[in-house]
Amino acid sequence: MNSRLFILATLVLAATAHGALPLPQRLEDGKLEARWFGDDANVLLLADLLKDEDPLVRERALADLSQTDNPLAVAHIRRMTQDPSPHVRSAAVQAAGNLGVGGCDEIVIEALESPDAPQLHAAIAAAGRLNLKSAAGRLEKLVAHADASVSAGALAAMTQLELPCPDEALLDALNNASALVQLAAAQNAAIAPRQDKVREALARLGADGEPMVRGTALVALAGAAGPAQIEDLVRQALIAEQPVLRAAGVHALRKTAQAHRAAGFLDDASAPVRLAAIEAVGELKYEPAADKVAAIMLDSPDMQTHLAAREALGELGADWAVPHAVRILTELGDSLHAAHGAVARWDKSAPQEYTAEQRDMLARNVSAAAWLLARCNSDAGMDQMVKLIGKLHVDNSAMVELARSAGALGDARAAQPLVGALERSTKGAQEHLIVSFFDRPPSLPFSPEVAVALTRALADLKATQALPSIDAAIKTSARGMRLVEPVAAGADALFDLADAATAEPLLKIILEDSSFSVGAKYEAARTAGRMKLAALLPQLQQQLAERQCRSLINATAWAIEQITGQSPDLPQPLARQGDWIIRTIGE
Question: pTM for the whole thing?
């Protein structure tokens, strides 16, 4: 094995020709996670292990092949679908679903006709994962499978793919003795209008079934019938002891546009029921409940409920959302500043009048107010937002949404406070890197997430005053380390803020220095291509030759194509094995 490892490790990586590349997408969080990759040598080594007598070794090799992101693995995975072991055959189908490159679709679709239940389960899951709408016919056949878990799985996959099961097959599933199949069938029934026989079966299950099945059937029926037709079922659900039934009843009220009744459950003891009521108020724009929803948004300790209430308030429209948002900023802004103290929040000398939970809720609620103003495209609370941006510490989580909203609204009043906040943030950046080596807090506040939000907001506002801080962030280093997310955001912002003479030297630093993150190099290449900076062509070509990961290769090749008008060949990425079995054997 060792000699084979050595020989195969010397194989030459082949380049792949391609057509025009699409514009690489901006990294939302400034991070780029490199996928595992196996070059041709890795694939051949793993394929060799598929001959091992131990089925567990073959399963492990298939799992690793699915991570190679290499089309060469497809043929080997296909061969293992005929393995004597049913577990290995199932692992092969699962590997095809995880790999997802050309040829994997056919493996999954063929496996949907397997007589083995494990292989069928793997194929059904893979069909959903690969969004294989072309598998509709074979999934339909599996709905009638004798194994209830296979039948339910096929129905669930069809629902995931938004494929309505034919009425006759669905009717049989609704009448199945298995509650698992009934539940999956009721979920699929909601996708499309149904015949009377199907609605009758749903009504029967809604009246007399397992609680989860009853609730799901009721919700599906509510989308296809009028309020009067399901009133008895809804009334029974709303007074049921089980929260799942009460929540289903409220969802049915939403689907039949009975907002006033749904709003009555905003105070229910069960969180799922309250969430259903909040959703109904927002979707149906039930204005009489606006104040109640706003109170829930502010007071709920549960983040899911808070976000649902925030969304509902936004759906009610500017007339209701904006006054609440302005009031929140006005009333809570000073409290938020006080809660985090006159110094940064990590300082032990900061006031302890507020608990950590109270500080977090204040920041969360101020963030929600800023989000609502941006959602409603209203600058009514801009004065309060500007004030907070100017005085809050730059490690305060509320600064993220305040900056995003200010940038989205495009109000020039926010530019200077945002510039000041970014300057304060940059001052703490180097110490942020340094203290990562020591068990002590920094003396200056810093948050990568806040720095990214500030940078992007200033780019939205075309505020060139931010360039010195972006320059400083890119050049910040400590013990060979660089900032990650702020540098990536800064490289992206140069397109909106800098001319070629300013952008070139900064992008060159990122492209040439190996200490920068892959995400920063990705954004630097993307900006170089968008600005068509021919002077950076040597650095881009060198970066392409380094083959760090497929996303970076594609972005760099796209940039070269934009500058030269010619599409370079795409090399394979460097092998990135992780804890693969061949690596373990080699060691």
Answer: 0.89
Q: How far apart are CA 43 and CA 66, in angstroms?
A: 10
Identify whether the C-beta of residue 156 lies closer than 8 Å to the C-beta of residue 186.
no
461-499 per-residue burial string, b: 16 or more CB within 10 A, e: under 16? bebbbbbebbbbbbebebeebbbbbbbbbbbbbbbbbbe
The percent helix, strand, coil of the chain (3-state, each to 5) is 70, 0, 30
* CATH number for the domain harbouring residue 514: 1.25.10
pLDDT at 236: 95
Residue 414 lies in a domain: yes
**469 and 532 co-located in one domain:** no
Q: What integer pLDDT is reported at residue 8 of this predicted model?
A: 34
Identify the H or E element spanning 245: helix 243-255
The model's pLDDT over 355-396, given as tens digits with 9 standing for 90+, comes to: 888 899 999 999 999 999 999 999 999 999 999 999 999 999
Cα angle value 257/262/263 (rounded, 5°): 120
Residue 341's pLDDT is what? 62
Verify that 461 and 327 share a domain, yes or no: yes
User: Would you state the pLDDT for residue 414?
Assistant: 96
| 78 belongs to a structural domain | no
- Nearest alpha carbon to residue 170 among 157, 184, 180: 184
- Residue for token pair 């497809």: 74
pLDDT at 348: 56
In this structure, the answer to whether residues 533 and 384 fall within a common structural domain is no
Which of 122, 150, 143 is closest to 63 using CA atoms? 122
Is the residue at 491 inside a domain? no
Characterize 281-295 residue by residue with b for buried, 16 or more Cβ atoms within 10 angstroms of its Cβ, and e for exposed: bbbbebeebbebbbe
pLDDT at 67: 95
Low-confidence ranges of the chain (pLDDT < 70): 1-19, 341-352, 439
> What is the reported pLDDT for 528?
98
- Domain, as residue range, for 543: 499-576
Decide which of 450, 479, 508 is a domain's last residue.
Answer: 479
On whether both 467 and 548 belong to a single domain, the answer is no
CA 333 vs CA 325, 386, 388, 392, 416: distances in Å: 11, 11, 7, 9, 19
Q: Is there a single domain that holds both residue 431 and residue 513?
A: no
